[in-house]
Amino acid sequence: MRLSFAALLVAVQAFRLGDLQIESSNWPAADSVPSDDDLIKISLDELYSIGNSTKLSDCDKCKHRLLYAKSLALVKPTLIPSIFTEWCIGTNALQKDMCLRIFGRTTVQNSYAGSNFADMVSLMDPISYDGDYYCHYTESACDYVSPPEIDGSELWGGSKPEKSKYAPEAGNETFYVLHVSDFHIENDYVVGGEGNCSVSMCCTPHSFNDDPVPQNYDISSNVFLQDGPGEGWSFYKSSYVDNIFEKGPYVGYNESTWWPATSFGHYNCDAPELLINSTLKAATSLQQQLNLNYEFAIFTGDLVDHDETQYITYESTLLAEESTFRDVKYQLGDIPMFPVLGNHDTFPYGQLAQEKYGFSNKFDWNNELMAELWRDYDWIDFDEEQQVREHYTGFSVKTKRGLKIIALNSNSWYISNLYAFINISQDYDSFGQFQFLVDELLDSESKDERVWLIMHVPAGADMLPVASQVFAQVVERFSPYTIAGIFNGHTHRDEFKVLYSGFNGSNLDAQTAENAIANTWIAPSVTSWIGLNPSFRFLEVDSKTFSVMNAYTYYFNLNETFTNNGTEPEWRLEYDARSAYGVNWPQFAPLNATYWHEVSQKIGSSSSSLQQYENFATRYSPYTYKCSESDNCDTFYCYVSTFTIDQYVKCCEHFGLDSDI
Ligand SMILES: *[C@@H]1O[C@H](CO)[C@@H](O)[C@H](O)[C@H]1NC(C)=O
Ligand SMILES: *[C@@H]1O[C@H](CO)[C@@H](O)[C@H](O)[C@H]1NC(C)=O
Ligand SMILES: *[C@@H]1O[C@H](CO)[C@@H](O)[C@H](O)[C@H]1NC(C)=O
Ligand SMILES: *[C@@H]1O[C@H](CO)[C@@H](O)[C@H](O)[C@H]1NC(C)=O
Ligand SMILES: *[C@@H]1O[C@H](CO)[C@@H](O)[C@H](O)[C@H]1NC(C)=O
Ligand SMILES: *[C@@H]1O[C@H](CO)[C@@H](O)[C@H](O)[C@H]1NC(C)=O
Ligand SMILES: *[C@@H]1O[C@H](CO)[C@@H](O)[C@H](O)[C@H]1NC(C)=O
Ligand SMILES: *[C@@H]1O[C@H](CO)[C@@H](O)[C@H](O)[C@H]1NC(C)=O
Ligand SMILES: *[C@@H]1O[C@H](CO)[C@@H](O)[C@H](O)[C@H]1NC(C)=O
């Protein structure tokens, strides 16, 4: 549909709120049809006049720009990216790379979401929660608002759990599952490149530091590289060939870098493929050492690196997805891996459209590629492949022992997915994902099957507040009888969260052992970005109920590989979850929500448990906070003892802390 310019003016006026009138002397006569150049100029003037208004708050200005964009989307959606980019950069509304990421014209050469922004404004209602949340999360212009009360029980027809409100009792046999997360392969990692760069992601061919290194700068003045010359700095270009580590040639480092990148990775960089191979090899070697026989692996998302969006191309996204899964397949052989995609594993970054609005063809390439690849690797069967292809926000698989794994694409509720701001409160299931999830759960409940949920973004971190609330309702309805585990990634930190029934964030007395009904396992990342040691874990799982009996987390000190003359890292057991916090827990009981409630209470009441949590979260890296010396750990109790975004915000308010949401 294309409206005339006169219709645009009518639309603009119609969208204006009565008491928020803005001077618009520069409108041309309504019957003239301006050229694109004129329309760009008129639009910029309009955006500037909104920006210069003394009557509007920053939040209202943001919503007015959305209203303007919405009317423009009816006439000339293709002009929106250039107009908004020019406005954003010209007025320093956001940092330049954010201006480009959100508004820049979408091409295969860079990960800019301008056309997705245009799609979004065409359907959103700026004067509603859509605008509130867009302007909060994307432009930091509006304050956080609590979501409206939404009753998700219509998703399950208001039915109550019929069988039991308890989980089935664990048996006496277990099996093992590998859990890896957040690979973030940096395919253009440069050994010897700048690891102390001026932008967020380093070690690439385009990484540089704005400040030139001083003349005669001695890199061994860097505490991390002090031991280098004697022991041997690890500037080797090495690789695994037929799964055997081969130390490659010494390539040295660039003399004009502050902190050159070494072979196995850097604390300011994502994972070189060498690190990915080392991780997978360590994980599979444990099988022989400990007689584990992983029955399957789960991967909770993020293959693509964190480089600036201008350097992420369609091709590099494909390469990251394909090369990482290929390396996994090589190592795991016949062990199937059940994966979900993360917020980085799409193009442009973070975007995923609802099927019903007709934009989903922009993203079909990804689910089609994944469906084919995972089927080729024998991770999913024919029917599952069809599901991945068609319902790309979710699919389910059944393991050979009868555990159902429901995999959800969490971009549908991710705070940087522009499509997720459409009709946020009125149509909370616009992706159809919650209905899919609930239908799967109802089916499992009726068959007494137990279910694991895997998804990238956890409910209480970077998830939009409305979806977070609805998701918690679904989890509560089906826990603990049907849902036996929830597994996430995304934060890179090794974390967990507890869901309490009857808890709203403020009534902390509802955080009791009896009310604890579900918990999430947020897995540590393989990537060391940022300031973390690489990590993975395996789970010990009850064969009868699929409840998690224990989790063994492995890591190595990345800093030790900087000066070990390029030899392989020494992976070691970091901790096992059952003994780590000294909770007195029955030997045959699973590490369920009640267990994590006990841990959470310890974290809230003992400074040594709080420090222990931070040590695990970061895997004892050189950047691990000393909780007693800073306020960096103050929000951790609220983090682990809440499930939704809003509960977390309210818990922080309760303690007078900044939730930073
Ligand atoms: C105010 O208007 C001037 C001139 O139109 C423009 O250059 C400036 O960017 C505007 N300020 C904002 C915050 O939009
Ligand atoms: C495990 O449980 C089964 C069924 O409850 C029982 O028959 C078996 O003897 C038990 N095995 C061991 C080693 O305790
Ligand atoms: C070394 O780094 C400098 C500064 O980042 C860069 O200009 C130069 O091209 C690099 N040299 C090599 C050989 O990579
Ligand atoms: C470091 O490795 C190189 C090449 O692998 C080897 O020649 C050298 O002897 C090693 N240096 C030390 C101190 O081990
Ligand atoms: C990683 O392993 C894969 C599969 O064996 C291999 O093709 C690739 O070259 C390896 N890369 C490195 C850097 O070790
Ligand atoms: C990183 O670079 C800054 C200059 O931008 C310098 O002051 C600092 O010492 C460097 N740190 C390391 C560890 O190289
Ligand atoms: C928003 O949701 C409501 C309720 O489901 C629906 O009536 C309306 O058409 C939706 N708006 C859009 C733009 O899809
Ligand atoms: C967790 O296990 C303990 C011990 O078996 C049990 O008392 C508790 O009810 C369980 N909690 C949940 C949420 O299943
Ligand atoms: C690496 O860091 C750990 C703590 O994070 C420290 O204990 C260790 O001494 C460091 N090792 C080297 C070789 O720098």
From TrEMBL:
Where is it located?
Secreted
Q: Which cofactor does it need?
A: Zn(2+)
Q: From the Swiss-Prot or TrEMBL record, what is one GO molecular function term?
A: metal ion binding
What Gene3D superfamilies does the database record attribute to this sequence?
A: 3.60.21.10
Q: Which residues form the Sphingomyelin phosphodiesterase C-terminal domain?
A: 529-653
Record-linked SUPFAM superfamilies: Metallo-dependent phosphatases
Q: Which CDD domains does its entry note?
A: MPP_ASMase (cd00842)
**GO CC annotations on file:** extracellular region
What residues does the Calcineurin-like phosphoesterase domain cover? 289-493
| Xref: InterPro entries | ASM_C, ASMase/PPN1_MPP, Calcineurin-like_PHP, Metallo-depent_PP-like
Q: Which UniProt keywords apply?
A: Glycoprotein, Hydrolase, Metal-binding, Secreted, Signal, Zinc
- Family per similarity comment: Belongs to the acid sphingomyelinase family.
Q: Which PANTHER family match?
A: ACL091CP, SPHINGOMYELIN PHOSPHODIESTERASE
The name this protein carries in UniProt is Calcineurin-like phosphoesterase domain-containing protein
